[in-house]
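Hypothesis: this fold can be encoded by more than one sequence.
Test: take the structure tokens below, design a sequence, compare later.
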């Protein structure tokens, strides 16, 4: 159910935050962060003029790889609702000490960094290809 502004109710946004957080960080979301996400979405996306409206609950229901779909959509058009929602959650999470390890690497070393960067490059290519296929197969747009 959508509110008159086109934004889902708070509970649906908190469930959406939990799904996006699991994809991005691999662990459950804190209730405070979920509430902040819901509030931020209600304020920031109330008058969203994104050219590509994406139904995040529908994608979650289809069990698509949200990270892959977001990458494929972002490279086509960065002004889509899924990318905006990912950004909102990442901006809120990066200020929390519980997410520090996701944003800063304490381990040094040139070779470790080069190996990590190489792995990330191949993973991004895989996610892009998978996301492109899922956008077409599930008729996301």
């Amino acid at each position: 159910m959508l509110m008159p502004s086109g934004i889902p109710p708070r509970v649906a946004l908190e469930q959406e935050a939990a799904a996006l957080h699991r994809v991005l960080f691999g662990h459950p979301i804190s209730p405070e962060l979920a509430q902040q996400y819901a509030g931020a979405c209600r304020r920031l996306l109330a008058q969203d003029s994104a050219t590509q409206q994406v139904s995040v609950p529908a994608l979650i229901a289809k069990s698509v790889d949200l990270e892959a779909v977001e990458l494929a959509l972002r490279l086509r058009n960065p002004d889509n609702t899924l990318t905006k929602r990912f950004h909102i959650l990442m901006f809120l999470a990066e200020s929390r000490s519980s997410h520090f390890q996701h944003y800063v690497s304490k381990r040094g070393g040139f070779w470790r960094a080069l190996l990590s960067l190489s792995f990330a490059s191949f993973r991004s290519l895989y996610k892009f290809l998978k996301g492109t296929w899922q956008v077409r197969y599930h008729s996301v747009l």
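Confidence is low (pLDDT under 50) at residues 1-5. The longest helix spans residues 110-137.
Hypothesis status: open.
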